[in-house]
Amino acid sequence: MSTRETIQPQQRTANYERIGLLVLAAVLAVAPLVLSNAYQLNVLVLMAVNAILATGLAIVVRAGRLSLAQASFGGIGGYTTGILTTTLGMPFWLALPAGGLLAAAIGVLLGLTSLRLRGFYFAIATFTFSQLAIVILRAWTSVTGGMSGMFGLPFPTGFLGLDFSDPRQYYYLVLVVLFLAVAIYHACSRGTAFGRGLAVLGEDEVLASSLGVPATRYRLLAFALSSGIGGIGGSFGAHFIQGVSPSDIAPIVSVFVVVMVLAGGAKTLVGPLIGAIILTLVPELLRASAQWSMVFYGVFLLLYVYLFPDGLLPLAKSAFRRAVGDPPSGTASHRELALVDAATARAEAARQNQAEGQGADSTPIIALENASCAFGALKVLHGLDWSVRRGCINGLIGPNGAGKTTFFNVLTGVAPVTEGTVRWHGAPVVPVPGEMVRRGMSRTFQHARVFEDQTVADSILLAAELSRRAVPETHLGWALSFFNLTDVAFSRGRDLTHYQRRLTSIAMAMASSPELLLLDEPLAGLDDTETRELSRKIAGLQQETGNTILLIEHKLSEVMELCDTLTVLDHGVIIATGTPDEVSRNSTVIEAYLGNE
Amino acid sequence: MTDYNDISRRKFLSSSAQVIAGVSITAGLGGLSFQAQAAPADFLTAGGKIGYGTILPLSGGFTVVSQPWIHAIKYAIDEQNAAGGVTIGGTSYEVENPIGDEQYSAQGGLTAFRRQVADNVHYSGGYVSVEAPAAVQGINEQENHLIVLGITGKDLCLTDNKHRFFEYALAQATGPYMAEYAYNVLGKRKVGSIELANTWGEDFYFSFAKTFEKLGGEMVTRSYLQPNQSDFSAQISDMVSKGVDCLYIIMGDGPASAVALQARSGGLGTDIPILAQGAWGPEMYLDGQGKATMDGAIYPGVVAYTEWSDKHQELNDKLYADTGLYLNNWFWHGYDSTKIVLWAMEEAQSLDPAEVVAAIPAVVEKRASELMIKPSGAIMTDKKGVFLKIPMTIGKFNANADFAKEQALVAVEDEKYVGFPGWMPENWEGYTADPADAAVNWYPTMDELAAMRG
Amino acid sequence: MQLFLQQAVNGLMLGGMFTLMSIGLSLMFGVMRVANFAYGALYMLGGYAAFWASNLLGVPNSIAIVVAFAAAFLMGVVMEQVGFSRFRGNEEATLIFGLGVALIARGGAVLAWGSQTRFIPVSFDTFRFGGMVLPASRFWAAVASLLIVGLVYLVVNRTRWGRIIRAVADNPERAALAGFNTKFQYLLTAGLATGLAGVAAVMLVPVFSLSPAVDDSALYTAMTVVILGGLGSIPGCVVGGFLLGIITAFSYGYLPSPIAPAVPLLLLIVTLALKPEGLFGSKDRVV
Q: Which domains does chain A have, with CATH numbers?
């Protein structure tokens, strides 16, 4: 494979961004030399501590949950190291990991509720948790000092000649921790496959799961990291103030951490840090008129929702882009995309599928044995026996409410198999959404789901990466040319037309080089030209890659033309199977459709 | 050669002599300056003034308390400046009063404190003391900064830190008088209490309970205020069912008035007296219902809180014009204590807090008559700072008073409870012991107190 | 036993009042899927409207209710017009917008009226029978609360306008196609919901007292009640209110008071974890 073409999106902005990060790092490093009196250093340290809390929180915000408990995790860290160092006399550096781990462990517990709750519900659950933490800390007076809190916490022990009772050295210590927190946040956003998976999980949980993101594991890990970082940050805060009390973790403090993240820009690497800088410094400037501070905070929140809802950093970035003349619609991709030329890629894709095809025996890729699906008392599928025909296009049709989508959901593990067996290459399996992709089965959805905030190129790369079955760049080159998406490769999902969304969603599903591709009403909502074009593409897709396709479709004329074999479902029962010709002559089928319409 | 040697020897001797002389003079001067007090200039702000800061919460729910306090400190400083400032070594210095927001949190308090330190402010008053981390941890001592503050509960205020001036009465000293008054004068036997869940509240509970129980009374229920608690009906019903005949509210301001209101309407009628601690003042009786609820509440205040003079009138008018509030106990926290510290600077002829704090007992002795709170001196401890000997008076709130012209608090008739000592005797072991030491008798009863006083 | 019954009665009265405190929040969520984080602040402002009406103008409670309702209604309409309608579907923005308004209201209240506690005259009379004490103020507040909640229930379920807003709540697109002005209905509902917060304040402030800080406790209480009962369900709100009232009374009555506040919080967390739709909410309303 040779690289023929390189796309370097918005190189200038990307370069300036790097320069911006370096300048920020330099400013943070030089700050204590300029702001050098004890008070200014005090504010700098608190700012860095807030930045750690905010950066940690950004991980779960990124994963799609708004937590109002980050200050509580800081408190858990601070109280833990406080108790360990003072009451038990443990060295700070031994106590610190304990504080972080305890915060992380409690974070995982709270994260468990996030599996069921989102939006307001989750925010309220975390809010309640933060109040509960205060009640416990206040009630447990013998250990925590109750409402008065704990005082006299030691500074971290110095090493290598460092003395952390000096606020400047303390600042640099916290700055190092902040740097590590930002590095972890980077790993949790763009830096690793885990991070990229987490980011799309936050955008669209269903789609991300269908592409192979293990939602539960990722989300809990995100909570562990987020609250662990919060705990560590809180520890450094408490040992700097040399005290910790329930008033330091009041719900309003957590709200301010959320505001730091959102106002700075939750989806940028250093947005939370910028937010922390602004929201720590501004109150200090306002100290003279402290009576007004609550009103100012309120006004700031309103300014945020009205004027810079994406955060200040993205606002500054887009202003900068305009200034340097880069196109305003930005791309999330900072990778240089080395596109493999289409012919090479196509050959590669076909080769891969043939290799899989040759290795397989005659058992069907997937089959149902007496499979039923019920939701409580409502039985949707009744003891189905069915298998997919390899190497051709299988159609699944039936009137509304026949159970077609449930059929898909059973195959992909979204709906439960309450009776009977699903067999994958002959072996019984319990399908789980993320895992089926890795086995070689992917799907699209009835509504053309794409990641609204990701570019087409990034979405396809990510899908390939998540499946762990394809070389992302190889697939991207092929997919962009096959689906005619090259022109919109760097457009975000939200800017696409319906047809482009449909194509992108199929390209993403194809990214795992699936043996079996499930398409849920791929032609729905397309006009006649688009319908014809996509039909041809689906046929071409099968021919070119040799994979197996199963599709649900209502446009019967297209189905008759496109499919090699059809299964007809009605009231959760298979009423006919055969070639389109056979099926169209089947009296039961005719009755089902006529009786229904 | 000899020439050279001669010259060089002569040169050597003379230059040696010069060096020795130079060194001696320098050393002598240095020694002199070392022996003399540190120059006042070291303790002045950038504007060449003496910095006397105020650190109190400026925002949120505590401002009713902090506003009179802030203004009390300001008025005391204004009066001193009007009288020519603080004179040291023949030079007069003006006093400035930077104000820091404590935000009612440890972090906010410490940040405000460090800001004042950075501005070379070496004195500050105020602090909602339960959260005063700089004082508890002795950070001010390291910075050579004198903190003037109220009483915070033994665990926080009896830690080691010499740079503290306690300008208010100890709970340990007033609690027994309140208990005795409730038992002997009011004839009450069953007390139900509700307190702030901190070391301040605990001190007021135990210093009362020890004496009350010794006398034969019973502490029937003890409960705490919880965060965001707005309903107290369950606690009140518990008290009613246990036959409580006296309600002890160990908290001030909003929560206290909510408890009082719900107690009154929940079965503890106006025939059941309220004993009060904390921030209670005319602002609680402005509304008709506040009057009806809390009129007659029994409260230990400073002497100045039960008197009325032309000076009271002047201060009250000024405070009302500035804040819309009337003189309350919190005003008296700030007013005289600020003057004492400013006078102590003149007494010590120094601006060095280490020396000023040492001069406080002497200045209080000399100028007590000029002070509104009529202190009886001050107790200098070895490690824990100076405690003002402040007389206290048990009074009853007259909610129907005209607060513009008279006090809200009226001294009770029994002389024993008017101007009683609000300080612990010098020989109390609490002044030297570690507050965590359980072997110390932290809450002596009235009898034990009397024995100590001899 | 005596004390047990007393605490049960305390809990029931508290439950009635908690229900009234929460009904507006529940209504707003039910119809508009908006969690109004400024709800507590509106309750607080309603309380001040009532306070000034009663203390400055000396008008009776019935007029104070009208004043507070009108003031809070207007604030609700304005918030819907400039805020909630604009952020519909964006929960983050809705939440932050509510918090922003709440902070401004609370900070402004401290600046304008001071942070001291205010009272609206209330009777200290008590009904006593069998050794039990029923504060008259609480008893009537609880009764009035239930009457008001009952009235709201009737309006929503038995009137033409109720049918319209239920249709809008059920499916705004279909309601719009059917010719209803959904925007207007939303404004009306927002006004009614916050207006009810004002009414609640008039009824409850005399019992609990008033200060700028009551916004927090009102918001926590209302949030807890509507989540326990199920967001958007009026019967759920009643059940949630009584549940919280009784649990509060018994935990404060029988547990050491430092632990007592943990009980309602634990109940809320367990409910969220196991049955987030609440006792009466429908599953699809869990957003």
A: 3-324 (1.10.3470), 338-596 (3.40.50.300)
